[in-house]
Amino acid sequence: MNYNLFRHDTSMAAKLVRKCLVMQVLVFFLLVSALASPLKKRKSLKEIKEINCEGPYIGLVTVFPPEETAFLATGAFKPHKTHPFVDLSGRRFRVGKIVDKKVIYVRCGDGMVNAAAATQQMLDLFDIKGIVHFGIAGNVNDSLSIGDVTIPKQFAHTGIWSWLNPSAPSIPDAVAHLDVARYNVPKGEGANLLGSFAYHSEQFFSELGKPNTARPLVWAQTSQQWLDLAANLEGMELQQCVNSSLCLPKKPKLVVGLRGSSANIFVDNAAYRDFLIRNFGVSSVDMESAAVVMKTTNRAGDFTFSFQTSLSNGFPVVVIRGLSDMAGGQSGENAIQIFGSLAAQNAVKVVVQFIKTLP
Q1: Contact at 8 Å (CB) between 238 and 147?
Q2: Using CA of residue 131, residue 136, residue 139, residue 141, what is the dihedral sign?
Q3: Separation of alpha carbons 73 and 18, rounded Å
Q4: What count of other Cβ atoms lies within 10 Å of the Cβ of residue 116?
Q5: Taking phi first (over 0 means left), then psi (-120 to 50 degrees means alpha), and beta for anything else, what does residue 115 get?
Q6: How many CB atoms sit inside 10 A of residue 250's CB?
Q7: First-to-last CA distance in the chain?
Q8: Distance from C-alpha of 204 to C-alpha of 294, rounded to nearest angstrom
Q9: What is the pLDDT along the chain (359 residues), one digit of tens a residue?
Q10: Dist. CA 304–CA 299, nearest whole Å
Q11: What is the dihedral of CA 266, 271, 273, 275, to 10 degrees?
């Protein structure tokens, strides 16, 4: 017998046992706090304990039903045989595998609050080693096209701003200013009572910082290690046609390493699109990604995990978004109703390939 191999195996087994015990203790305290809760909630927490003993998992977070439909339609996700899902706070967390990778998937819902809440819930309750966030987005980069998939390296939260009093001075340390009067038609005619907006940085709380002390943050970084892995997928074939009679004029492509922005704003306005390009240099706009990235990288690495990110000693995170429309840069109606499903399918295709490449 190879006794070195035997010792290695027993050591690994001991680690798994210790890890399972740690997760059981965590869930025990959650159960104690939920004793006064309905039986259904206590049953869910018991399921979580059993699920975590088989972890860790890759967390998958998407946004709205068409993206979920595209994800489940691939057949790549194989549900867990005994615990296919856990329902918590109105959301369904699906447990399973993609090839040999264990995953937990959730649809968070539109907007920054939903994205942050679902991500935090996933990280708090499940044994997660990293987050893959995916969906569709608006395209604000004229070198990209509808159907392309972008995996940005960083995100700005462009929904934090002050609506300034027209008679008050502007804020000198603002990230950017939007003067509404610049968009008067005809130009220079009359006073615009809407005034201007001053964009602010995010308040970022980190386990590595002082307690109750935030630092300003404009760009939230995704994980470089995972970006490097994703870069190997550039050149993969993506879907060009919605159906036999409706196709894009050229083959979509995957682009890694650009910038994105998020806010509780659906952008379908050419002037605001141009403002975001000039002031933030972004290539895509959505309503959730910045929240997921900040929630993931803001969390301190638990002692049961080995993955860490550079931003705040948290978990790896990557964002994969298919471009569904031109965010107002088009002439006429927004194309999301026509090409949204195609953009979602292309994003999902990249997600599945990316998960397959993870070590």
Answers
A1: yes
A2: positive
A3: 37
A4: 18
A5: alpha
A6: 10
A7: 29
A8: 8
A9: 444 443 444 455 555 556 566 566 555 555 554 444 566 667 788 999 999 999 999 999 999 999 999 999 999 999 999 999 999 999 999 999 999 999 999 999 999 999 999 999 999 999 999 999 999 999 999 999 999 999 999 999 999 999 998 887 778 889 999 999 999 999 888 888 999 999 999 998 877 778 999 889 999 999 999 999 999 999 999 999 999 999 999 999 999 999 999 999 999 999 999 999 999 999 999 999 999 999 887 643 332 333 333 333 378 999 999 999 999 999 999 999 999 999 999 999 999 999 999 98
A10: 14
A11: -120
With a CB cutoff of 8 Å and minimum separation 6, the contacts of 72 are: none
Tokens of 324: 């569904």
The residue type at 125: L
Q: Can you say whether residue 113 is alpha, beta or left, with left for phi > 0 and alpha for psi between -120 and 50 degrees?
A: alpha
Q: Which amino acid is located at 9 in the chain?
A: D
Tell me the whole-structure pTM to 2 decimals: 0.87
Cα–Cα dist 319/259, whole Å: 11
Are 66 and 344 in contact by the 8 Å Cβ rule? The answer is yes
| Alpha-carbon torsion (301, 317, 77, 338), positive or negative | positive
Task: List, in order, residues 6 or more apart from 296 with CB less than 8 Å away.
Answer: 119, 123, 130, 131, 309, 314, 315, 316, 317
- 122 vs 119: CA distance, rounded Å: 5
Token pair of 329 as six digits: 């840069």
Which amino acid is present at 237? E
Amino acid in the structure at residue 268: D
Q: How far is CA 234 from CA 7, 119, 224, in A?
A: 42, 27, 16
Long-range contacts of 51-55 (CB under 8 A, 24+ apart): 51/80, 51/83, 51/86, 51/95, 51/104, 51/126, 51/127, 52/20, 52/23, 52/26, 52/27, 52/126, 52/127, 53/20, 53/23, 53/24, 54/102, 55/23, 55/102, 55/126, 55/127, 55/128, 55/129
Cβ–Cβ under 8 Å, residues 346 and 287: no
